[in-house]
Amino acid sequence: MGNLELIVEKHTERIHRGLEVLPTLKHGVPDGLGNKRWTGDLILATYEQALTGDIPQNDLEYKTGNSGGGFDVLGWKSHDRVAKVDQDQVDLSIPLNKRGDGEKIEIPVPIYGGGMSFGSISLNFMIARARAARRLGTYTSTGEGGYPDQIVPYRNHVITQVATGMFGVREETIQYAPIVEFKYAQGAKPGLGGHLLADKVTSEVAKMRESSMFTSLYSPFPFHSVYSVEDHKKHVDWIKTVNPRALVSVKVSTPTDVDMVAIGSYYAGANIIHIDGGYGGTGAAPEIAKKNIAMPIEYAIPKVHDYLVSEGVRDEITLMASGGIRTADDIAKAIALGADGCVVATAEAVAVGCTHCGNCERGRGCQVGITTTDPELSQFIDPEWGEMRIVNLFNAWSKRLRILLASFGLESIRELRGRKDLLVRYK
Ligand code: SF4
Asked: What share of the chain is helix, strand, coil (3-state, %, to 5)?
């Protein structure tokens, strides 16, 4: 073993050991960890769930953050007299295709992994996410940076994303895909497209994106081929021609007319409308854009759900929500507001050690191997270890969801959809 391998192994061990010790700290939450949305408690509670696969058994707050708004001021109505339901029998599955034609895909948990591109995250983290999706029977999305050969073995659980830069989009990666996702916009930076700064464009990333090494890469906003529902339908038809069995998902941010965008997507033939609110994104998204442009997802979900109901098409399209989903309670609240399920990315990063330091785009990138393309730093994530951390987190969330649903006398997560009457506003 050479010096480099020894150093990487030593640091990997240190990171993994640190993550396993942190949740048991007896001296409180470390100063400076997290922020008001992702509090130190939530970060440590996520580490603990990723370690144990269970709900935290200590005093860590694992349900909400401390932002003073949105999900953090929504709680559950007290409920004493409900029919008894065995929590082990609660069904968490949701359909991803509600239309009369095409593949009938269901996922056993109301969650899948959101797009984080090759280049913005390390290959090892990407593989860990794909392995976890396969183990859980759900999906993860490639993001817009192309489809590395190393995730091909997991292709039945990988969503191919097609975004405005068209980086790495190839006919075979559309043909692989059970689901193809058009990313029209991202909630963390609507109207800005994507950007990958030069430092992260290594030879592998440049090759995948058919570009030059150490050159900043920008994907435009918007798709210059789409200015109407009819244009969008041509996109959907293009995918259905290349891969007739693929479901089509449409990822959009949350402008004030997001309900119109959703109904347009339905009429264009999409199976999934995925709305992305303003609290997601890695530390690479510009601070000025995050939290200041897109509508918070808590407002966008009921707006879209109610409009689809009023148009009589709600039961023909799946509504997925993302952009600030941190906990099982956030997932349940999003569904009670009208979503069918949620898409998560940052929470998976926290499961493998993200501390919310915000340095994703600086220099060599993430010091724990998540948002980096540096060959040494990337090795800090062992794909099998990352897979288990993500699987454990989803299992812990599933337990909490089952407890919550059973307490309301609900036998299926589908019965929770749109049950705003079960929510209360605290402040
Ligand atoms: S720990 Fe890594 S992924 Fe998390 S915010 Fe810091 S640099 Fe980004």
From this structure: 40, 15, 45
The structure tokens 């089509």 sit at 248
Q: Match domain 87-425 to its CATH number in 2.30.30.240, 3.20.20.70, 3.30.420.10, 1.10.340.30.
A: 3.20.20.70
**Of residues 64 and 197, which shows the higher confidence score?**
64
Cα 235 from Cα 128, distance rounded (Å): 30
Distance between CA atoms of residues 164 and 176, nearest Å:
20
pTM: 0.92
The string of pLDDT tens digits covering residues 238-260 is 899 999 999 999 999 888 899 99
- What is the DSSP secondary structure assignment for residue 131, as one 8-state letter? H
For tokens 């033939």, name the residue: 269
Helix (H, G, I), strand (E, B) or coil at 379: coil
Q: Where are the domains of the chain?
A: 3-75, 87-425
Q: Is the dihedral of CA 414, 420, 422, 423 positive or negative?
A: positive
How many Cβ atoms sit within 10 Å of the Cβ of residue 13?
11
CB-ligand 1 contact for 360 (6 Å cutoff): yes
In whole numbers, what is the pLDDT of the chain averaged over residues?
Answer: 88
pLDDT digits (tens, 9 = 90+) for 363-412: 677 889 999 988 889 999 999 999 999 999 999 999 999 999 999 999 99
Q: State whether the beta carbon of 347 lies less than 6 angstroms from ligand 1.
A: no
CA of 282 to the centre of ligand 1 (A): 7
Cα 102 to averaged position of ligand 1 atoms, centre (Å)? 39
DSSP bridge partners of 196: 217
Nearest residue (by CA) to ligand 1, atom 2, is: 366
Element (H, E) at 344: strand 341-344
